[in-house]
Specification:
- The complex is a heterodimer of chains A (317) and B (295).
- With 317 residues, chain A is mainly alpha-helical.
- Chain A has 2 domains: 1-42; 85-314, MetI-like fold (Orthogonal Bundle).
- Chain A is 74% helix and 2% strand.
- Chain A contains 15 helices and 2 strands.
- Chain A has helices spanning 2-17, 19-59, 77-82, 86-119, 123-133, 140-151, 158-164, 178-203, 208-215, 220-231, 233-248, 252-258, 271-280, 285-309, 311-314; strands at residues 61-63, 71-73.
- Chain B has 295 residues and is mainly α.
- Chain B is globular.
- The chains are: A mainly alpha (317), B mainly alpha (295).
- Chains A and B meet through helix 1, helix 2, helix 4, helix 5 and helix 6 of A and helix 1, helix 2, helix 4, helix 5 and helix 6 of B.
- Chain B: Residues 85-281 form the ABC transmembrane type-1 domain.
- Chain B: Belongs to the binding-protein-dependent transport system permease family.
Chain lengths: 317, 295
């Protein structure tokens, strides 16, 4: 964005200098631009625009016993249904709650670890940086499986650990605790990745700024909050958007945990799970597409609003 | 740096702070490592040893069954586990290399060629980064099933070629990494546009290439929703979906279908390749993952 602007500013001088013989070459070169773009564009059209358009088309039609198995145009009827569907709305509210709890928790932890790592250069700090990052290399399915085992009263260490204090282990897979148990899995999985991004951004700051601040009497805390965090605002905005989009699409972890915690996780737990079960358990592809499209719109609006609200911090104008 | 610090804080307070920082890091590292430790320990236990063992959940039992478990992975259901592993590799490598190649070409074009519609294209690309890819899975499934491609490797590989975020990252990187003057100078020397790309641009884009390759390979390797939706044949599943099926069966079924020891050992073996790759490629990804930060 700033880069585009600078190009535009710099461009006139250059083009003015050699406009005469260049226009022909430039049109030829334009084709090269499109040629390089072509392979990606094919995939972009086939696997993004077409499915998106098709989902929209499906969402405007209904096919089922009521329509005699024919696909019938029903306009916005599916949307009226989805936005009054208690299952969809409660799923949306649930992923909304996940966003409110999980995103600040993950980003907060990632920034805290990155800030501490940034002030140290010991062997231990380097090792812990790697160890914190490792869960990113582990598929979400495997991560959820492992935590499922750890939560389980049959396999897990919880009963032993709580037994030391003479307590009964809580049932992490119960209806009351499953929310927190899922928050824990996702936090465990993603903090390392966000931490590495924040850490790399911190390393890119010129350390002479800190020297100047120290001479002015700033303590470590002031440097962290007044200098470091504002200077990495654009990276923070980016990881919040990643976390936001990822959380609203919540699917893998609750789906995997369902087989050990069926009572606590219904098939309508998140909008994506609801869409999946509508499509593959009930063969209601029209309604499933409506759910997916409605979710897509809400995610798009959510991240757009966030990016707009933080455009100053991110430099994205 | 220390001299400046000591001007304001006594050495003892700095020392305490360093100790506190290290304690914090040790606790954090423990939290992230304990589940993996559990997995390592769990994969050395027999099926029944996972429930009742001399070592408890976080320590080894007297009986060390890791090699038996690995052997059993080769024989259980005709060694289907290794078919899943091969599938995962195929999907991750084809999806990763393919989407990275497309992303590098497209990102380079968006950064270094001026053509009509470029800004519109780039805005659309930025918008598509915000489209949740899982929202596309169900319509993609319906489309592929009409083309008769459900239950084939193509159903996983082709949608995995799409990586708008990859294009965005390469574009951001290429704007600064490839000087226009360098391209112009090579053009004056008579180099064609293809030659420019391979000889000038590609070497300069290597850090972006490696980062995007890593991100897309991990994304395909980890993918769950898409293969779960478009594959039915057990022989085509990636290891993530396969192990999850074992887990669902073990929880629902009785006796012979309970293969807890294979789940733990299979999970451990399946995460080793990526962990090794990340450790080996450290110097590439550590700086590279920050590429995406919006400038």
């Amino acid at each position: 964005m700033t880069s585009t602007t600078t190009e535009r500013v710099a461009a006139p001088a250059r083009t003015r200098r050699r406009r005469a013989g260049q226009s022909l070459l430039d049109t030829k070169r334009q084709w090269w631009g499109w040629l390089f773009l072509a392979p990606f564009t094919v995939v972009f059209v086939l696997f993004l625009l077409v499915p998106l358009g098709y989902a929209f088309w499906l969402s405007l039609h209904t096919q089922g016993i009521a329509t005699g198995g024919e696909s019938v145009f029903t306009g916005v009827a599916n949307y009226v249904r989805v936005f009054t569907d208690a299952d969809f709305l409660s799923g949306m509210a649930r992923v909304g709650r996940f966003v409110l709890v999980m995103v600040p928790l993950q980003i907060g932890l990632a920034v805290a670890i990155a800030l501490v790592l940034d002030t140290l250069a010991t062997r231990l700090s380097q090792a812990s940086r790697l160890l914190v990052f490792v869960p990113y290399a582990i598929p979400a399915v495997i991560g959820a499986l492992m935590w499922g085992f750890l939560y389980s009263p049959r396999f897990g260490p919880a009963s032993d650990l709580f037994g030391v204090f003479g307590l009964d282990a809580p049932d992490f897979l119960s209806r009351d605790l499953i929310f927190g148990s899922l928050v824990n899995i996702v936090t465990w999985q993603w903090v390392g990745y966000y931490m590495i991004i924040v850490y790399a951004a911190l390393r890119a700051i010129d350390p002479s700024i800190y020297e100047a601040a120290k001479l002015d009497g700033a303590g470590n805390r002031a440097i962290a909050f007044r200098i470091k965090i504002p200077m990495i605002a654009s990276s923070m905005v980016m990881i919040v958007v990643f976390a936001l989009i990822g959380t609203l699409q919540f699917f893998t972890e609750p789906t995997v945990l369902r087989s050990v915690a069926q009572g606590a996780i219904p098939t309508t737990y998140t909008p994506n799970m609801y869409a999946y079960s509508m499509a593959f358990s009930y063969s209601q592809f029209n309604y499933a597409s409506t759910i997916a499209f409605a979710l897509g719109i809400l995610v798009f609006i959510g991240s757009y609003v966030f990016l707009y609200a933080t455009r100053k911090q991110s430099g994205l104008k | 740096m220390t001299t400046v610090t000591t001007q304001h804080t006594s050495p003892r307070r700095t020392g305490q702070r360093r100790l506190g920082s290290h304690l914090f890091l040790i606790l954090a590292a423990l939290y992230f490592v304990v589940p993996l430790w559990w997995l390592v320990v769990g994969s050395t236990k027999t099926n029944s040893g996972l429930f009742v063992g001399s070592g408890g959940a976080l320590w080894f039992n007297d009986e060390f069954a890791l090699w038996d478990n690995v052997k059993q992975l080769f024989t259980y259901q005709g060694g289907i586990y290794w078919t899943w592993m091969r599938n995962s590799f195929v999907y991750a490598i084809v999806g990763g290399v393919g989407s990275t190649t497309l992303a590098v070409l497209a990102g380079y074009a968006l950064a270094k060629y001026r053509f009509r519609g470029r800004n519109l294209y780039f805005s659309m690309l930025l918008g598509s980064v915000m489209v949740p890819l899982t929202a596309l899975t169900i319509p993609t499934f319906v489309l592929l099933s009409q083309l008769g491609m459900i239950n084939t490797m193509w159903a996983v590989v082709l949608p995995s070629l799409l990586s708008p975020i990859g294009v965005y990252l390469v574009r951001v990187y290429a704007v600064d990494a490839i000087p226009d003057e360098m391209l112009d100078a090579a053009r004056v020397d008579g180099a064609g546009e293809l030659r420019l790309f391979f000889r000038v641009a590609l070497p300069l884009l290597r850090p972006a290439f490696v980062t995007v390759l890593l991100l897309t390979t991990v994304a395909t390797w980890n993918n769950f929703f898409l293969p779960l939706a478009v594959l039915r044949d057990p022989q085509l599943l990636p290891v993530t979906v396969g192990i999850n099926q074992w887990q669902t069966l073990s929880n629902a079924g009785a006796g012979g279908e309970q293969v807890w020891n294979l789940i733990t050992t299979g999970a451990l073996v399946s995460i080793l390749p990526l962990i090794v790759a990340f450790l080996a490629l450290q110097k590439y990804w550590q700086g590279g993952l920050s590429l995406g930060s919006i400038k």
